[in-house]
């Protein structure tokens, strides 16, 4: 059940991105669909994110892209086209967990595993 709102308005994200740079924090940019990669490319362009950026593909989450190998390769292609030089990792929720883990390793990415995302 959806019970909260993420406050990710542009002013907030620019402020947070610049503050993280000031204090030496390298953010992990979690993306739940390809549109969020395009958003991150904008924040790189305006200086709120400093490349190279590390992306976490969160797949199979409610409201996000399905956890399939085909979708993972699409996300990787969008990332390479819009944020070249970035690093990435991926996880799949539920029954897509293993498919995403194996596909990410085969595609040269990193993986995230743990009880928050999968068993």
Notable features of this structure?
globular, 4 helices, four-stranded parallel sheet, alpha/beta, 119 residues
Write the layout of secondary structure elements.
Blueprint (H helix, E strand, L loop, with lengths): L9 H14 L4 E4 L2 H12 L8 E6 L9 H14 L4 E6 L4 H10 L3 E2 L8
Question: What features would you describe in this structure?
Answer:
Helices cover about 40% and strands about 15% of the residues. The protein has about 120 residues and is an alpha/beta fold. Strands 1-2-3-4 form a four-stranded parallel sheet. It is globular, with a radius of gyration of 14 Å. The mean pLDDT is about 90.
Short account of what is shown:
The protein is of the alpha/beta class and 119 residues long. It has helices spanning 10-23, 34-45, 69-82, 97-106, and strands at residues 28-31, 54-59, 87-92, 110-111.
Structural Rg? 14 Å
Count of individual beta strands = 4
**Largest beta sheet: strand ordering:** 1-2-3-4
Q: Could you describe the largest sheet, including whether it forms a barrel?
A: 4 strands, parallel
The whole-number mean of residue pLDDT values reads: 92
Alpha carbon gap, first and last residue: 21 Å
N-to-C SSE series?
HEHEHEHE
Low-confidence stretches: none
Beta-strand content bin: 15-25%
Number of helical regions = 4
What is the overall shape?
A: globular
The residue fraction in helices comes out at 40-55%
| Broad structural category | alpha/beta
């Amino acid at each position: 059940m959806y019970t909260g709102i993420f406050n990710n308005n542009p002013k907030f994200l620019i402020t947070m991105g610049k503050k993280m740079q000031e204090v030496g924090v390298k953010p992990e940019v979690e993306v739940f669909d390809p549109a969020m990669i395009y958003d991150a490319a904008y924040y790189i362009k305006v200086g709120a994110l400093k490349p190279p950026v590390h992306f976490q593909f969160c797949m199979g989450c409610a409201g996000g892209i399905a956890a399939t190998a085909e979708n993972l390769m699409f996300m990787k292609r969008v990332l390479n086209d819009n944020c070249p030089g970035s690093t990435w990792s991926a996880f799949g929720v539920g029954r897509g967990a293993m498919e995403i883990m194996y596909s990410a390793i085969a595609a040269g990415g990193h993986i995230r595993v743990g009880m928050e995302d999968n068993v």
